[in-house]
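Quick note —
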Amino acid sequence: MGTVKIVAIALILAGLLGLVYGRYSYTRETQEAKFGPFELTIKDTQTVNIPVWAGVAAVVAGGGLLLFASRKR
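Predicted structure written out below.
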């Protein structure tokens, strides 16, 4: 399997995951203050929304690459 086909399949899978889930969250820790042996840490949850157009564009681009790779031979 060629590199172009692998990239195309990865784009299609990433686009489908973006369309299905639509967002992902992660936790970020920041150290706010340190007083001797005591340390104040804040955990902040960030949410990133994935636009629908980005998921569709990834699926279309992956499909186009897959078609291009199969027609090249």
